[in-house]
Specification:
Largest sheet: none
Structural class: mainly alpha
Number of helices: 2
Radius of gyration: 17 Å
C-alpha cells in the first residue's frame, strides 16, 4: 500500500475513533433510558444494554485509535 493511502487510512481511523468514543459516551449516559422507552424493557435490562453498547463502541474506538496511530515501517522487515 502506498504512503498516501496509508496516511489517509490512518486519518480515517483516527476520525472514526472519535465518533465511536462519542457514541459510547452518549450510549452510557442516555442508552438505558432510550432502551426502556423504545422497547418497553425492564429498567435493569435497559441499563445493561446501554452500558453494553457503550463498552462495545469504546472498545472499537480504542482499536481504531491504536490502528490509526500505528507506525510500523515495512521497509525495515
Amino acid at each position: 500500500m502506498s504512503d498516501s493511502n496509508r496516511s489517509s487510512w490512518k486519518a480515517f481511523l483516527r476520525g472514526i475513533s472519535g465518533v465511536l468514543f462519542g457514541i459510547a459516551a452518549i450510549a452510557f449516559l442516555f442508552g438505558g433510558r432510550a432502551m426502556r422507552e423504545f422497547t418497553k424493557a425492564d429498567w435493569v435490562l435497559g441499563e445493561m444494554a446501554g452500558i453494553f453498547i457503550a463498552l462495545i463502541c469504546a472498545a472499537l474506538g480504542a482499536w481504531a485509535k491504536s490502528a490509526g496511530e500505528e507506525d510500523i515501517n515495512d521497509d525495515e522487515n
